[in-house]
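Review session, final week

We close the course with one last complete record, chosen because it touches almost every idea we covered. It is Hexosyltransferase, a protein from Vicia faba with 352 residues. Go through it on your own first, then we will talk.
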Amino acid sequence: MVTSMIITIFLFFLFSIHHHHHVTCTTTTTTATTQRFKQAPKFYNSPNCPSQPLDATCSDESVHVAMTLDVKYLRGSMAAILSVLQHSSCPENIIFHFVTAASKSKTSTVILNTTLTNSFPYLKFQIYPFDDSTVSGLISTSIRSALDCPLNYARSYMANLLPDCVRKIVYLDSDLILIDDIAKLAATRFTNDAVLAAPEYCNANFTNYFTPTFWSNPSLSMTFANRKACYFNTGVMVIDLEKWRIGGYTEEIQEWMELQKRMRIYELGSLPPFLLVFAGKIVPVDHRWNQHGLGGDNFRGLCRGLHPGPVSLMHWSGKGKPWVRLDAKRPCPLDALWDPYDLLETPFALET
């Protein structure tokens, strides 16, 4: 019995890190102070871009991008921002909404703010502190400590954190780059009552995301009755915040987390509550917008290639991050595609 339990937990562990990237809590401000980033070039709108009001925070003509900002993944975030701007036809119409952990020192927040301003002097952005205590009491210990970071759950609170006038966002993880215009993704049409849009992966074994306790309880397993529930990766999502607020989905996610505290219905951190609430109810997006899993094989260090088909976004979900492998001089072939977006100033860079 013990052996079978260990095997089950191992399989859950393998499956979760194969598919998902999470922000870890083990960060220090010293990491940020030792990292210096180059200034990115300024990117201009093409002539046919809609004009913006002086305060574009609430403009529906803006593309609103939301990301969590964390010292540990700052290098990845900087590359992601650069890739978004570089491939946008209307980069001046993009507004970034960065969520940081309120529990971090003020020094850490100042460093993050200064780093962004220095590298992207023209960037339109706001930083929102996320009160960790909002969610820390709801987090049940998962199979990987990295999954237990409160900032990892901030994506469930975007509707509360951002101004009410922001009606739709593109949520992005920090370990990805775009090679296409984000406005195309942001323009995803929402049908019926759908609140969320993302690439679906219906070939994944959906039952793996929940425990036998969940599936053996008819009142729980009936949650997915009459729903063609498929896995989706929460690292790339288009969210209709207006519908989210009306539907009270943050509270619904919290209710599932409270139940999890009582009876252990999943093992994988912040993903399962999203699946419980939204799987089978989302607008499917073309897979080109989340070529994920590029973090590679987590146990043998094997590199992964792209899925068949076109590519608009590459996502290094999984344990291996391209900047770590590049620094170690052990990159995977696709890491070379991330490298041009790396703004880190190396200590050996020649002064120009």
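Two points worth writing down before the exam:
The chain has 14 helices and eleven strands.
The longest helix spans residues 2-19.
Good luck, everyone.
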